[in-house]
What we know:
The strands form four sheets. A five-stranded antiparallel beta sheet has the order 4-3-2-1-5, with no helix packed on it. It has a five-stranded antiparallel beta sheet with strand order 9-8-7-6-10, with no helix packed on it. The radius of gyration is 26 Å and the shape is elongated. The longest helix is centred in the C-terminal third of the chain and has 7 residues. By secondary structure, the chain is mainly β. Helix content is 6%, strand content 38%. It is built from two helices and 17 strands.
Amino acid sequence: xxxxxxxxxxxxxxxxxxxxxxxxxVFEVTRExxxxxxxxxxxGTTNAYCVQMTDCEIIKEKEMKTKIIRITGCKSDLxxxxxxxxxxxxxxxxxxxDYYVNVGASTEGCYCISREDAIVIEPIPEKVYTPFTNENGxxxxxxxxxxxxAPKYIxxxxxxxxxxxxxxxxxxxxxxxxxxxxDWTFLDGSPCGKLV
Length: 196
């Protein structure tokens, strides 16, 4: 998969360039041309607009954070989102007054939402688990577990030792905490480990 390159416009070296009012804006690069410019598509348009390489900087992948906004209100009944309060959208780009979002499969460009009418929400972090230890023994004794590779093998954790769990299943009498974590899940599909 090809990595997306995005640029941030840092200056405008000539008043005639289209981006003179877009300093600080970020755009996705569609290609580099032979004249020392990046070509960028704006809000789903198929036209590629030129940005001089000397007028921008490349945004590193780790600096690209996707913003999700939630509409909290609508100051005017005339705005397109007046019936969409509490709806969430992924932000395409931002201006000093508005968030610009793509709606559905629209190719007609971005729709703007006033910053006064939305808040940025953070994506829900992914849950991270680590293997159990013998300190978790009391909470997992009696729990049924299922083998990931052979789902028909179900066992009951019957005892917890210093480094191992013991089960009621003849196919596997015991397993280390790491093996339990790697090879087994609880019946609801959640990992056999503790939430960090």
